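Practice problem: predict the structure.
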Amino acid sequence: MNTASQGSTVHNSNVSNYIATDPLARDLTQSTRLHEPAQILSSTDPITGREIADLTGHPYLVNGNVTMYFESEATRQEFIDMSADHPLHLADNPTEEGYAEG
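Answer:
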């Protein structure tokens, strides 16, 4: 049977080495939510590093789509008061400027 080619790929999915090469319509553009979860929930206290089993009643902090839980109000306040810069100087590079030593 002779049929005229319309310029599209014919898929024969009955063969054992079938590979679909045409993208689906949803795959033609990059997803904007590829690695962006809608909500991040952290049940590990960032100050003590301990896992909080039952989150009810524990203090928390919401920052955008991240919710962080704390063991106590004291550790929550310590986290809020922490500077954005690294609070400790490294022993091998004690200057604040952090010059490369290599």
